[in-house]
Design a protein that fits this description.
GO terms for molecular function: acetylpyruvate hydrolase activity; metal ion binding. Keywords: Hydrolase, Metal-binding. The chain has helices at 36-41, 115-123, 129-132, 146-149, 178-185; strands at 13-15, 22-24, 28-32, 52-56, 61-63, 67-70, 77-79, 81-87, 103-111, 113-114, 138-140, 144-145, 156-161, 164-170, 196-198, 206-207, 213-218, 222-231. It has 232 residues and is mainly β. The strands form 4 sheets. Strands 3, 4, 5, 8, 9, 11, 12 and 15 form an 8-stranded mixed sheet that branches. Strands 6-18-17-13-14 form a 5-stranded mixed sheet, with no helix packed on it.
């Protein structure tokens, strides 16, 4: 029997709506600049030749309803509300018209961001890792099976901070659709069950502070909530 030097970390796993079983999280892919208005507010142009991605560690997962500590090394901590795709079957070089066949379900997600660190990295043409991939930065609601909610291509997405609406859009404004994202991403990776795709955020991103309450919703998918705690 294999013995480890220390106990390995538990596998991050998200609740599935209406199920007793959990969805084990493998990898987290995030799509950048997938709403034109958000790209404009960030001062960049949309690249329409192909989607682009960054990643978060699966250990960054936090369930909806949690309180997370205000993260270290930042003075500009942002929310980004997103539709999340949960992959349920392997896919490699899958055709766009077959891409939805590998989707297990959908969820609401918050891509929490140390914006000041991200922008410094962007200006120096460095990776975004320290601005995007840090502890408690990938918030996720319960996953809703596609057999329940279908495959949403339109519908309201909204985020509120302390009851005030900050982000409001429709999923039909995604530049790259869910089938297009899966098909393209599967040319770069062998997608596996447990992979998550955060599909991008609309305009209206902004900073939060300790004590703030963040709440979001996506039509047919559900809702998400997060409380910002004191610095760790």
């Amino acid at each position: 029997m294999t013995e480890y030097l220390f106990a390995p970390a538990a596998i991050p796993a998200a609740p599935i709506q209406g199920e007793a079983t959990l969805f084990p999280i493998n990898r987290i892919f995030c799509v950048g600049r997938n709403y034109e208005a958000h790209a404009r507010e960030m001062g960049v142009e949309v690249d329409r030749e192909a989607p682009f991605y960054f990643t978060k560690s699966s250990s960054a997962y936090v369930p909806s309803g949690a309180t997370v500590a205000y993260p270290p090394a930042t003075e500009n901590y942002h929310y980004e509300m997103e539709l999340v795709v949960a992959i349920g079957k392997p896919a490699f070089r899958i055709a766009r018209d077959q891409a939805l066949d590998v989707v297990y379900g959908y969820a609401c997600g918050l891509d929490m961001t140390r914006r000041d660190l991200q922008l410094v990295a962007r200006a120096k043409q460095r990776p975004w890792d320290i601005g995007k991939d840090f502890e408690e930065s990938a918030i996720l609601s319960d996953i809703v099976p596609a057999s329940v909610c279908g495959h949403p291509s339109s519908g309201a997405l909204e985020l509120r901070v302390n009851g005030q609406t900050r982000q409001s859009t429709d999923l039909d404004l995604l530049i790259w659709s869910i089938p297009e994202l899966i098909a393209h991403l599967s040319t770069l990776y062998h997608l596996q069950p447990g992979d998550l795709i955060y599909t991008g955020t609309p305009e209206g991103v902004g900073a939060v502070l300790p004590g703030d309450r963040v709440e979001g919703s996506i039509a047919a998918v559900g809702s998400i909530a997060l409380t910002i705690g004191d610095p760790a």
